[in-house]
Amino acid sequence: MHLVYLTSCSYSGSTLLTLLLNTHPQIATVGELKANINSKQSQILCSCGQNLHHCAFWTTIIKRTQRLGADIQADRLGTQFGYPESKLFQLVCHAKVRSRWFENMRRFALSREPFAKTFTQVLMRNRLLIETIADHKGGTHFLDSSKDVVRLMYFLQSKYWQISVIRMVRDGRGTMNSFQKHFPSLSPRKIARMWTGVDRQFENLVRLFPEMRTITVRYEDLVDDVASQLKRIALFLNLSPNFSELDFPTGHIFGNDMRLKRIESIRLDESWRQQLSPSALQIFEQIAGPTNRKLGYD
User: Fold this and answer.
1) Residue 81 in this model has a pLDDT that exceeds 50
2) What class has domain 2-294?
3) Which long-range contacts (CB under 8 A, 24 or more apart) does 188-191 make?
4) Which of 25, 69, 197, 258: CA 20 to 30 A from 242?
5) For strand 27-29 and strand 141-147, is the pairing parallel, antiparallel, or unpaired?
């Protein structure tokens, strides 16, 4: 199984790219496989428009995994690494990707009880769902667009799959503006640090796995020329560029609300140029300016 992992900061275009890649006949995806759904959110919709409990696709997938002995429910996939009952386990699981010494210590901790059993169960649920969904959809490649760099590291360490990584980036000022729209209480300073933190984690991961196959896709380039960027990605994945037109409802995708909306046209969002305050821009430059320029943004 060829696993394609899409990593990015939130609000960088990953849902758009997921919807586009989902139109390829050999790419199977449900978007963010780490979807943290619980019974209190049972009304959450699949991108097909159905409640998860009534979606024919998810009903089939759940039944197939349960026949194999997995404890998986539509509102409780159990694919997110962690253990809410233990704050220590949560801290160990979710700590940012750091140095080789730190990651060796983390791996040692997760290989010991009481953590090892839970960690292994989550990993195996991911493996089972990936293989079941890909088989059901007839895909040779499975795309997980969970974005989380730590999760990607766990997948690389498992050696269960051949993994190719799509790194999605966007001008950090655009990401900051989107964060402020959705989370007005977040300060520009915190958002800038969060954004640079994702970049730092990825660079740390590259040092840990120098052999990792990666392609970088800029949101702005994707929106400017969808066809050429999809062709780049297809060649990277050794696939023919047989993408279809976006249609709605589109597949069975987890992600932000964009997956539930009809996209009439794909347009560049640079509203940050008008909406970010001078003080926010100044803070961004102080904290994230060098990283932004490293990614090719003036």
Assistant:
1) yes
2) alpha beta
3) 188/279, 188/280, 188/283, 188/284, 189/283, 189/287
4) 258
5) parallel
